[in-house]
Amino acid sequence: MKRREFIQKGAVGAVATAALATPAIAQDKRKWKMVTAWPKNLPGPGVAAQMLADRITAASGGRIEVELFAAGELVPGRGVFDAVSEGTAELYHAVPAYWGSKSKGILLFGSQPFGLRADEQVGWLNHGGGQALYDEMYARFNLKPFLCGNSGPQWAGWFRNEIKSVDDLKGLRYRTTGLASEMCSKLGMAVQAMGGRDMFQALQSGTIDAGEFIGPWTDSALGFYQISKNYYWPGVGEPSSAEECGFNKKAYDDLPDDLKQAVSFACESLYNPVWTEYTTKHAKALKQMVAEHGVQVKMLPEGVIRAMGNAAGEVIDDLRNDQDELVKKITESFLAYRTSISDYMVYADNGQMNARALDYKYGG
Questions:
Q1: Could you tell me the strand order of the sheet in which 30-36 lies?
Q2: Which of 90, 125, 272, 328 could form a disulfide with 130 if both were Cys (CB 3.0 to 4.6 A apart)?
Q3: d(Cα 24, Cα 58) in Å, to the nearest integer?
Q4: Are 141 and 38 part of one and the same domain?
Q5: How many folded domains does the chain comprise?
Q6: Which helix (H) or strand (E) holds 197?
Q7: Is position 146 within any domain?
Q8: How many CB atoms lie within 10 A of CB 28?
Q9: pTM here?
Q10: What is the pLDDT of residues 207-224, one digit of tens each?
Q11: Domain with 83 in it: what CATH number?
């Protein structure tokens, strides 16, 4: 027998013996249900949800086996928060922007109009005190939350008609979500919340005049370009949109420390891969939509952006004056981090992007 075969067979035998001698290890397995807010394998969030389920299973060494249920398979997409809170499932994958009816403070952990970018958002949580506040808020609902991805900058979306001034927004039936909804409402827009597929049908039937969902990669997969060719940027309502995993708090608290670390690592380690996949595929999808489907990329007029900025400021002021002291604490923490990082980014990332945009020869 070759030495390598002997070692391999010996290792297998040792593992088998250990398993027989310590049956409690084999019994230390959990089968968890993950419910999501997305159709199965929807490019972007649906793909990320499956990645997270697989990563938790792998990081736990198979001791937590996660089975994914897409929106509607076990509970409706907008019902996943309550399902996990009540223990119907052990975890969910969604976005904080969907839970404003629970508390307005939750919305700040997902996206903020004129707020934090993807890297800044996770910076606030990890280094600006945000995670402790995130935990405190979600504990009210028997949940333990982690960020586990980000779409990067979203788009202002798909408009049937051209936008020339703020007056064109008044009465506009528009799909969006989260704090962006409140910003748009202050501008006189008739905001509606719905999923991506419902948004397609609403645009097609004329029930809405415009709407945003995520960005080029996901939007192209849903086929919005078939109905509208006017694709507007920047999506100042969501400079980034964080994806989250919410665990039933009792199920999470009952885990041994090593499995707590495993699920934490699985969530946190997925943030950059998800974010960079969005960014990479958004860029490719945008070029394809323009070249093959006649999509017209248009920038919102400066006057419209300024008006949105003022409306966003009113939204933040409302949160600062909320009756819930925790909502106030979250808002002040967000604002302090935004101010600090914004002051620095003038020299750092803004400086680099402005330099890159100058006219000079580079790479041909």
A1: 64-69, 30-36, 91-94, 242-248, 143-150
A2: 125
A3: 20
A4: yes
A5: 2
A6: helix 196-205
A7: yes
A8: 12
A9: 0.90
A10: 999 999 999 999 999 999
A11: 3.40.190.170
Q: What local confidence, expressed as pLDDT, does residue 27 receive? A: 63
In three-state secondary structure terms, 103 is coil
Q: Do 84 and 219 fall into the same domain?
A: no
- Indicate the pLDDT class of residue 28, thresholds 50, 70 and 90: confident
* Backbone torsions φ then ψ of 208, nearest 5 degrees: -125, 160
CATH number at residue 214: 3.40.190.10
Per-residue pLDDT band for 363 (boundaries 50, 70, 90) equals: confident
CA-angle at 233, arms to 116 and 361, nearest 5° = 90
Residues 274 and 323 in one domain: no
Residue 237's contacts (CB-CB under 8 Å, 6 or more residues apart) are: 111, 113, 154, 156, 176, 178, 179, 180, 183, 184, 212, 308, 312
| 230 and 197 within one domain | yes
| C-alpha triplet 32, 37, 43: angle, nearest 5° | 105
Neighbours of 58 (CB within 10 A): 13
Q: Which of 122, 145, 150, 111 is nearest to 243 (CA)?
A: 150
pLDDT digits (tens, 9 = 90+) for 238-270: 999 999 999 999 999 999 999 999 999 999 999
Closest C-alpha among 315, 313, 340 to residue 327: 315
